[in-house]
Amino acid sequence: MEFHIERAKVLPKANLHSFISGLKKWGKLIAPVRKGEKFVFTHVEKPEEVELNYTRTILPPKKFLVPYRRERFSYSVEDLSFKTNFKAENQVIFGIHSCDLHGISILDSIYLKENPDPRYLEVRKRTVLIGVSCVPDEFCFCLATATAFPEGASWDLFLTDIGADYFVSIGSPKGDEIVYSQRSLFRDIEKEDLNAYKATTLKKKSLFKPEQLPDLERISHVVELEYDSEVWQEEAKRCLGCGTCTNVCPTCFCYTSVDVPNIAGTEVKRIEFTTSCQYPYYSLVAGGHYFKATRADRFKHRYYHKLVGYPYQVEMLGCVGCGRCSAECPASISMVETIKRLRGCNEKELREVTE
Ligand code: SF4
Ligand code: SF4
């Protein structure tokens, strides 16, 4: 029997709420909702709560794959027996932008490529990812990181806004199943739909101003060459070391753990929680040595890991250009500007060498 997956369908916007309601059949529904002036991914019950007209959420949907605080296990102090309370449930994360889908693909590589983390695998298998197209603001630079469009990431469905309808690309057998289960809401693609879909690519590209896009050509090499650049010291002078940039990042995954005893001292929980390379204790090892002793060391480490470490580790940049770190930094430090300064410095040095 020939196995055929439909590549795309059209969902009239008038059917969006019915479609969202139907998604609850596939798991707990998570989607972006408005929170004051900002947006957050959260559990939703009603389709009217979902807000698709957003640029970025405060935190990426990563928090539903790798919670910021999680219990690894607990053990009895008396007999040293171990227990785990881990339980993954089916979930549908709806309304994810392309950059965050790529962020999840990077996490997939981190957690699943070598020595797969069984918990991440279990959560991932139970998660449906549905993306939606977006409009960039001044902090976005996903066009430079090649993550402005969902191709290359792993997802089940992707909705592109083409005016009165959504052009729904189908990215997996699960996505195909979801569309088929609500097939009365969809119609087949017509030539005008395809033309409108193609036009959205050009339109999105045209919305980026040249100055908001860093040149990332051979960036790993540039950052390595600029290891001793004064740019790190200068930028780090403004840095508060607050860790916001890593906490909001869709690709950061560092965590630490602490053992928390109950009040009777009979049972201990091993709690893992997200940490930041921007905190001094992050690089503290036994004997009291700090591998990243100064703020400039820690500041540089983040860029170095994103732009040199990840490509080495997972063959992708560790930045998807979502702009969260720049938009949320209380010191207004911009990833794009730092990269530009490094690039400029590097070009100047290269000119000096070649002249
Ligand atoms: S968010 Fe800004 S101030 Fe805070 S650690 Fe990151 S770069 Fe420094
Ligand atoms: S480094 Fe900044 S712009 Fe890049 S993915 Fe992380 S938060 Fe987004």
UniProtKB/TrEMBL annotation:
A Pfam family the protein falls into:
Fer4_22
Iron found in the keyword field: yes
| UniProt keywords, alphabetically | Iron, Iron-sulfur, Metal-binding
Q: Where is the 4Fe-4S ferredoxin-type domain?
A: 229-260, 310-338
In its UniProt record, a GO molecular function of this protein is: iron-sulfur cluster binding
Name listed for the protein in its UniProt record? Cytochrome-c3 hydrogenase alpha chain
| Residues annotated as transmembrane | none
